[in-house]
Input
Amino acid sequence: MAETVLDIQNLAYRWRGPASFALTVPTFKVSKGETVLLLGESGSGKSTLLSLICGTILPDQGCVSIAGTDITTLSARARDKFRGEQIGVIFQQFNLLPFGSVADNIALPLRFAPARRSRVPDPMAQAAELCTALGLPEGVTKAKAAALSVGQQQRVAVARALIGQPPMIIADEPTSALDANSQTAFLELLFAQTQTYQTSLLMVSHDPRLGDRFDRVIRLDDIADVQRAAA
Ligand code: ADP
Ligand code: MG
Output
């Protein structure tokens, strides 16, 4: 049996407020090196689940274990550090620092994650290398993130998730702002990294055509129950 990297048990979470969206996940596991595509309609709760896995929101019930640590038991600060070490995150809204340079944005996760930092002897050189691999123009590393196009910003967000080879990559619709060529370049790089470093990948999309490349394709309904307040 392959080692389990992500292990969710009896998870329950409810967004408060008028929409009152509630999500439960009885059990969900991802193995070391496994690539999983999670499909679902818009508004079905995919981003909510990824936020629970990253520990940016805490469940009302249940455990979320990553590499054997139940992140729901950690303090907010310890969770931030843990996320930095263990997870490369590509958010739907990229979350770049607009006034930071591209290189600073890419190297950011290393700042709070000493183990991940130790795998990158020269962060600026590594940032430039990742930019080239993702088809960004030469010299882009010194530009301010805000000066880039949306598609370019998305590639910077990708480079930031890949740097320092975190054991798990969580990606929320990472290809949505990319044209077909950049989409292919991005997926090639992502899958090269997961293969070389036995990185687990959990990627969310509403595009089932991406499914061929993944070890496992699931729909959110397969693993989760969702309840909404009656309108
Ligand atoms: P998806 O990523 O599949 O499009 P989300 O997880 O973003 O779905 O959203 C699922 C539902 O959760 C939304 O329809 C909304 O009701 C609720 N929701 C999401 N984010 C928030 C939030 N920040 N505050 C309150 N409710 C939210
Ligand atoms: Mg979403």
Notes: The helical segments are 46-54, 76-86, 102-111, 114-117, 123-133, 150-162, 180-197, 220-223. The chain has one domain: 4-228. The chain has a mean pLDDT of 92. Residues 4-228 form a domain with the Rossmann fold fold (CATH 3.40.50.300).
